[in-house]
Amino acid sequence: MAEPLVNQFGADVPEAIARMIAAVHPAFEAARFMRDVLQGYDELALMPRGKHIARALYRHLPQDYTQAIHILLASLDQPHGRPAGLSMASFLYLPHTMFVAEFGLNHFEASMLAEYQLTQRFTAEFSIRPFFQQHEAATLARFKLWASDPNPHVRRLVSEGSRPRLPWASRLPVFQKNPAPVLALLDLLKDDPELYVRRSVANNLNDIGKDHPELLAKTAKQWLKGASDERRWIVQHALRSAVKRGEAGALAVLGFGQSANVEVGKASLTPKRVVMGEKVNIAFEVSNTSAQPQEVLVDFCIHYVKANGKTSAKVFKLKVLRLAPRETVRLSKTVSTAEMTTRKHHAGKHRVDVLLNGQARALGAFELASVATK
């Protein structure tokens, strides 16, 4: 089992921050700071630890925010003494971003300077959210400037920080209602040279599509005009959730707006009865009944049983089939029923469909049992 991430965010984190600050601000009382931080520290989860440190910094740095943030920024590149190669090395700066988000809202320029520097070391995608909520126009204007910044981490902040539905962050309801200002930013980044940035652009556009499916399809169609391979990838990645939902507009943009002229046969789900933790194999044939070649988008969907007995559909990507006239292709996929952090399994009958150009056809069902029968 992987080591919990919080284990890499122990007392050595505030100790490192204290050393870095003391190196540039000798008046900082590191020992008092550490006594304060360690009160109740071990009982906290990862993100609360970051906020706990940020609030301790507020109590032990000068009360003038501009002076305090100047000290913090001056300390960023001081030796921290933590082991090299930690998977969470950049999380050292998590408390700094939380400090800005909680105490810097009334100091826009000083905080934007901090966000600019911090996002190049960690990420300011979470700490920028309160600034959109309190200083929408000014933050949008700053993001427009940063969209052409030479640093890819800064450009990524423009797309990631403006996502209306950024995971693990507060939503931006104003942009959920009217995403036009965000789309204007994404338009500046749609041909960014860095995949790191382009992936964020696609994720933002995917977010927008959850609230505005027609606007997503319209934007995707526009972006595909004269598109490079890189921009085509953005569009396909941005449409992934809409395709899983079977939205006609998204499917049409990708060339799968027509019903597939195919037959599905020889479906098998084995075993028919699966004990939790085991695997089930889903297989079937797709036959082109036409005298013309066809491209068919093939996915499949499992209707997972929930705790209340109802079901929730989960779509799994398969492939795009390029079928010759009268050609038959057999497809298969093995799915695990082991417990996951993102899905809890429940006993019951699980229906399975194949999705052909977004349209469902039944394949059968398997029974998921909590224990094996003798």
Give a quick summary of the entry.
The protein has 374 residues and is of the alpha+beta class.
Description:
By secondary structure, the chain is of the alpha+beta class. It folds into 3 domains: 127 residues, no CATH class; 121 residues, ARM repeat domains (Serine Threonine Protein Phosphatase 5, Tetratricopeptide repeat), CATH 1.25.40; 108 residues, Immunoglobulin-like, CATH 2.60.40. The protein is 43% helix and 20% strand. The protein has 16 helices and 8 strands. The strands form 2 sheets. Strands 2-8-7-4-5 form a 5-stranded mixed β-sheet, with no helix packed on it. Strands 1-3-6 form a 3-stranded antiparallel β-sheet, with no helix packed on it. A hairpin with a 2-residue loop joins β7 and β8. The longest helix has 17 residues. The radius of gyration is 26 Å and the shape is globular. The two termini are 31 Å apart.
Span of the ends, CA to CA: 31 Å
Task: Tell me the number of helical segments per DSSP (H or I, 4 or more residues long).
Answer: 16
Mean pLDDT across all amino acids: 93
What is the spatial order of strands in the main beta sheet?
A: 2-8-7-4-5
User: What can be said about the biggest beta sheet?
Assistant: 5 strands, mixed
Helix content: 40-55%
Low-confidence stretches: none
Structural Rg: 26 Å
Strand content: 15-25%
Q: Provide the succession of SSEs.
A: HHHHHHHHHHHHHHHHEEEEEEEE
Helical/strand content category: alpha+beta
How many structural domains? 3
Shape: globular
> What's the number of extended β-strand segments?
8
